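Why do we care about 3D structure at all? Because function follows from shape, and shape follows, mostly, from sequence. That is the central idea of this module. The next example makes it concrete: a single protein chain, its amino acid sequence, and then its structure expressed as C-alpha cells.
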Amino acid sequence: MQLHDATTLHFDLRIEIGGVLRSWAVPKGPSLDPATKRLAVPVEDHSLDAGDFEGVHAEHRRGSGAVIIWDEGPADIVRDEPDHLSVVLHGSKLAGGFALTRTGARRWILVKVRDEQARPGSDIVAEQPASVRSGRTWQDLA
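And the structure:
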C-alpha cells in the first residue's frame, strides 16, 4: 500500500493478481477496525514495478506528488469475483483478512475482517504515518 500526495492525498491499495497490480484509491486509508468502512475507488491496473516506487512523481501520467510505501507484504487471495475480493494480508501494518465489495460502478468498500488482527477503535493511519521502507513520511519527501 502506497500513500500518494496527488491531486488529493490518498492511499493506493495494490494487490498482485494475474501478473499485474489491481489497484484502488482509498482516500481515508485502511482501518483495522471491522466497524469502519472505507471508500475504495478502482483505478487502472499497474505494472508490478509500480509497487516499488517511493519518491516524488513530477508531471507523471498517473499523478504527481510524493509517494511512500506505507505498508507492504504478501497477500493471499481468498475470493476473487467481479463484485467481491477477499484477501489475507501479511504486511507490517496491515495483517489478517480484508474484504473489498463493489457497491456501485466506480465505488467499492474496504473493510477489515473480524479476526485476531482486528483492532476496534484504532486508527492505524494516524498511529503509523511513515514508510515501512525508509521511515520517512510523505511530507518528508515533498
